Amino acid sequence: MSDEKRKTLLDNLSRGLAYAVPVLALVAGGSAVHAIYSDVAVESGYYMMAQAGEAEGEATS
After folding, report:
1. Which distant-in-sequence residues (6+ apart) come within 8 Å of 56 by Cβ?
2. What is the mean pLDDT of residues 50-56?
3. DSSP letter assigned to residue 45
4. Per-residue exposure over 30-50, b if at least 16 CB sit within 10 Å of its own CB, e if not
5. Nearest to 38 by CA among 51, 28, 48
6. What is the phi-psi region of residue 45: left when phi exceeds 0, alpha when psi lies from -120 to 50, beta otherwise?
7. pTM across the whole model
8. Are 56 and 50 in contact (CB under 8 A)?
9. What's the Cα-to-Cα distance from 7 to each of 2, 4, 20, 39, rounded to whole Å?
């Protein structure tokens, strides 16, 4: 591979990375805000996750 092709390829990859990283940061930030808001705005008595130490099911023997 010639040096010119290598430089062109690296330039294209770095340009794509420069656009992808901020988009990923926005998506992750939006997901985090949604998760925090959904935990705060939950109706009293209704939780999606089990509390610490609480079993999901019981073993029968």
Report:
1. 50
2. 54
3. T
4. eeeeeeeeeeeeeeeeeeeee
5. 48
6. left
7. 0.47
8. yes
9. 9, 5, 20, 48
Q: How far apart are the first and last CA of the chain?
A: 67
Task: Tokens 């940061």: give the residue.
Answer: 25
Q: Could you give the CA distance from residue 21 to residue 27 in angstroms, rounded to a whole number?
A: 10
**What is the per-residue pLDDT for 34?**
86
Q: Which residue matches tokens 């079993």?
A: 55
Length of the chain: 61
* Three-state secondary structure call for residue 5: helix
Structure-token match 């390829």, residue found: 9
Q: What is the pLDDT of residues 26-43, one digit of tens each?
A: 999 999 888 887 777 655
Nearest to 37 by CA among 29, 26, 45: 29
